[in-house]
User: Fold this.
Amino acid sequence: MTSPGPADTAAELADALTRAMKRIRRRTMQRLEPYGITPGQARALRTLDHAPGCEGPETMRLSELAERLRIAPRSATTVVDALEEAGLVARTPDPADRRAVRLVVTEAGHGALERISRVRHEVAQEYFGPVSPPEQDALLRALRQAEEAYEAGPTP
Assistant:
């Protein structure tokens, strides 16, 4: 019997990551459901909260949110509509362009962010808890390295 080659190992790693993400996402969705928040809404809220300037008057435009989430502007509108309806985000006029609006995380939105953070940490601990801290560190380093290389594009 031959040992798997690098291509086989990479494919198996990709499959394992896909399974892990599906399980983590499913568990996160289950845990966020009582709060009325979907994982997509949680991701949008976190993106707004961590964006430079979103804590002050220089908030983010809807188009910028769509770009950072790597989704279509129409999809971002749907997510923001739900967040606004729930009172977690407010749209405010853009002082520089009256046709545009900026997005602000409300006080209720900050409370939701605390719940989201707690759920994310709980789910991550449940999934990765059996893995030793040094192995978690190594996995994180490897994934960051792969992501950086992927984002940089093919080498000439």
